Backbone:
């Protein structure tokens, strides 16, 4: 894993954008995208750039079950607001949180990913080491699935809602197997609350207890962390 330590999340977002921009100029056509606080500085750089996205396809990692695309807390809404409204893509996929038959829909989403192999996948990481909503204990070999959110994740995400009770209890999410099939992965993490998960992901054993640790097995992963998120890492990673 290549680790890049930046001063702060502003610089981290700029660095991540450089990687995406270069990848797209070099021919990447399908991007796996993420939501949450972490990618905001990347998307800020993206929308103010002159990068043309009209030939690109995007596939998002996850969506809450039960939220309509026009719900301001939905990941559909987030993506429209932070990127797609300002940078139109050829085609964008975000899981349908209103799907009636969630299990059948998950199979459909796997098919979408199969037909549009992901060239560059963007990831954030949860404080418990989750990637997408693959919580600790999720098998490494599964595709898109419905996941019950842990208490910790509900609590962490309640900052975007009026109160904890409003946070949906489950989500549709790409599996670790989908993520590992991407050609290139860029994971961003900022702030001291991510420091332990970052250390476990990079230096710890590969275990389903820390879903992000599977990334050690991927041949092309770049981790962009600010100094606070890098603080527990061995000195050799601090460039
Ligand atoms: C979002 C996602 C999540 C987040 C993670 C970190 O699409 O899949 O795994 O990347 O929960 O969230 P933030 O960035 O809000 O700290």
Residues:
């Amino acid at each position: 894993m290549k680790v890049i330590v930046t001063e702060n999340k502003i610089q981290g977002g700029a660095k991540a954008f450089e990687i995406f921009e270069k990848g797209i100029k070099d021919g990447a056509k399908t991007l796996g995208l993420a939501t949450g606080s972490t990618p905001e500085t990347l998307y800020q750089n993206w929308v103010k750039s002159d990068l043309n996205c009209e030939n690109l396809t995007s596939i998002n990692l996850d969506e809450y079950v039960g939220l309509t695309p026009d719900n301001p807390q939905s990941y559909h809404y987030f993506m429209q607001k932070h990127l797609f409204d300002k940078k139109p893509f050829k085609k964008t996929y975000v899981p349908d949180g209103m799907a009636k038959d969630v299990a059948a829909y998950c199979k459909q989403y796997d098919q979408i990913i199969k037909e549009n192999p992901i060239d560059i996948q963007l990831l954030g990481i949860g404080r418990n080491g989750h990637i997408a909503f693959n919580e600790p204990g999720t098998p490494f070999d599964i595709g898109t699935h419905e996941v019950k959110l842990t208490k910790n994740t509900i609590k962490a995400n309640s900052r975007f809602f009026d109160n904890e009770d409003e946070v949906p209890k489950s989500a549709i999410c790409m599996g670790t197997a989908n993520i590992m099939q991407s050609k290139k992965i860029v994971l961003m993490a900022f702030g001291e609350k991510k420091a332990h998960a970052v250390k476990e992901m990079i230096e710890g054993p590969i275990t389903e207890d820390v879903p992000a640790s599977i990334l050690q097995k991927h041949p092309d992963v770049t981790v962009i962390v600010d100094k606070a998120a890098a603080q527990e890492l061995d000195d050799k990673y601090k460039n």
Summary: The mean pLDDT is 96.
